[in-house]
Amino acid sequence: MSKTVMIVDDSTSMRQTVKICLSSAGYDVVEAEDGQDGIAKLDGRPVHLIIADVNMPVMGGIDMVKAIKQMPNYRFTPIMMLTTESDETRKREGQFAGAKAWVVKPFKPEQLLAAVAKLIMP
Fold first, then answer.
1. For residues 27 and 50, what is the distance between their CA atoms, to the nearest angstrom?
2. Beta partners for residue 28, in sequence order
């Protein structure tokens, strides 16, 4: 069975880029355009990894991570931040909220896939 990854980013082109990268590696992809949309799409279906931007309208990535960690079905789902933010303070804030990885844009597809493979348990 293939693994499902949710991409949460307010940039359509960024979601498409990540989706192509993941789909070509055999992952199923669910897209959401902001944190609130991402949470709404966590409707009980299995999601093996969430990749989220930090800066988004409506609800940003770090607030979304905090909210997801309160959801019994998704509390242990690994979350990777994919963002232009490289500030250590933001990274610590993300880690404290529960993010397991921090990848800075622009990213190399191999780098992203290696991180995804590490975070998704077989």
1. 12
2. 4
Residue range 17-31, pLDDT digits in tens:
999 999 999 999 999
Q: Is 83 left (phi over 0), alpha (psi -120 to 50) or beta?
A: beta
90-13-84 Cα angle (round to 5): 20
What tokens were used for 72? 């019994």
Angle at 86 between CA 90 and CA 22, to 5 degrees: 105
Structure tokens at 42: 């966590």
The pTM for the full model equals 0.96
Domains of the chain: 4-119 (3.40.50.2300)
Cα angle, residue 87 at apex, residues 77 and 118 outer, rounded to 5°: 30
Q: Which residues 6+ apart lie within 8 Å of 119 measured at CB? A: 49, 78, 80, 100, 101
